[in-house]
Specification:
mainly alpha
Length: about 290
């Protein structure tokens, strides 16, 4: 549990500051950034797997139909999540992306109860109710249906569920996920070249080099997340996730200068109350289990 918690905190801090990185490529269309993200993630993970000498494990995945189907689903889900996130950040919707990742832990709890038969205790249910109220307040204040938020929450929540179902080494699994969407990314490169709409390849050398690092920027938090998912309950993992959108919210206010209402800040305070309640309830449950 402690190991899982540390990995989760590292992953969510990395994701929280990620908008700063994607803003470097403000003039590149989201689809083109995504294609580079997929390709360079595959390259980085291929190098990592080669260093680890795990190619036999990769081959084994491609002979298992059930594992391959699960990895295909997780690969497509995370690619959808990446695309929406990049587009939202580069079009001035960092607050809405933050809301999406505030929604995600609630969805994680629902998925955990329905599919994994996890049973939160009363204190944890109270925390969930407080967090749900906070999200409702934020959504009403936002003034329109938050499709970006809902899409981000749903895609990443289902991705987390898929990761709980896949019993594979983190690096091998991530390489396989990127391999699933790699043909689409390369095909998009070819299409952009044919129609003459390539943008990334015309970037100044320093900026293009930073784009090459998107493989590392993408893969590292996912590796930490995969390790956390294997060691923690899905519902607890979801609540630790509030670290990420909190950082995004702070960035949206102080760095990107997006408009944030007082009601949003009230909702933010409710969410942190929920986090404290959930942490206390979880610690009490752990102590009770040890005493039995």
């Amino acid at each position: 549990m402690n190991s899982g918690l540390i990995n989760a905190i590292i992953a969510y801090v990395m994701w929280g500051i990620l908008p700063l990185y994607w803003k470097l490529f403000n003039n590149v269309p989201a689809g083109e950034i995504l294609s580079h993200r997929v390709v360079w993630s595959f390259v980085f993970m291929g190098i990592l797997v080669a260093i680890q000498r795990r190619w036999s494990d990769v081959k084994r995945i491609w002979t298992s139909r059930s594992t391959l189907l699960s990895l295909t689903a997780s690969g497509l889900l995370i690619a959808i999540n990446w695309l929406i996130f990049i587009w939202a950040v580069n079009n001035g919707h960092v607050v809405e992306t933050s809301l999406g990742y505030y929604l995600n832990p609630l969805l994680n709890v629902l998925l955990a109860v329905v599919f994994l038969h996890e049973k939160p205790n009363r204190g944890q249910w109270l925390a969930i109710a407080i967090a749900a109220l906070a999200v409702l307040i934020i959504t009403i204040d936002y003034g329109r249906f938050p499709w970006i938020s809902i899409s981000l929450a749903a895609s990443f929540g289902l991705y987390g569920l898929a990761k709980k179902k896949i019993k594979q080494d983190e690096s091998v699994g991530l390489l396989s996920e990127t391999a699933v969407v790699l043909p689409v990314a390369l095909g998009y490169w070819i299409y952009l070249g044919i129609v003459g709409k390539t943008t990334a390849w015309t970037l100044p050398a320093p900026i293009f080099f930073e784009l090459l690092l998107s493989g590392v920027v993408t893969a590292l938090p996912l590796l930490f997340f995969a390790r956390a998912a294997a060691r923690m309950s899905l519902s607890t993992l979801g609540f630790v996730q509030y670290i990420g959108p909190t950082i995004m919210l702070v960035l949206s206010i102080f760095v990107f200068k997006e408009t944030v209402s007082p009601v949003l800040l009230v909702g933010f305070a409710f969410i942190w109350v929920a986090l404290i309640v959930y942490a206390i309830a979880s610690m009490r449950a752990t102590k009770l289990a040890k005493s039995v």
